[in-house]
Specification:
This protein is an alpha+beta fold. It is built from two helices and five strands, in the order E-H-E-E-E-E-H.
């Protein structure tokens, strides 16, 4: 399990290469890897808001969901259509 919040803003290149680095590492693991993030995204519907995303790797397969857009302090959420797919994935 990997979890980060509002970290990429402090990284070189705003963390643009982080997805590739973690993805390559996760694909090489024998166990499933899940990565939860709350990070700012360009073009957010509201200034300064963050995307809540989940990436999951298992047996060479990768899934990505953007569950919601959120105020950086998670005081307000706007859920996305991916939330239903994410919940269905884990209940089936």
């Amino acid at each position: 399990v990997i979890y980060n919040t509002y970290m990429t803003t402090y990284l070189p290149e705003k963390g643009r290469t982080l997805q590739t680095i973690i993805g390559d590492w996760a694909q090489s693991q024998m166990q499933p890897v899940i990565w939860f993030q709350l990070e700012p995204v360009p073009g957010a519907s509201r200034f300064g808001w963050c995307a809540i995303t989940v990436d999951f790797w298992e047996s060479g397969h990768h899934r990505h969901w953007q569950l919601a857009m959120s105020h950086p302090h998670v005081t307000t959420l706007e859920f996305s259509d991916d939330l239903a797919d994410y919940l269905e994935f884990w209940t089936n």
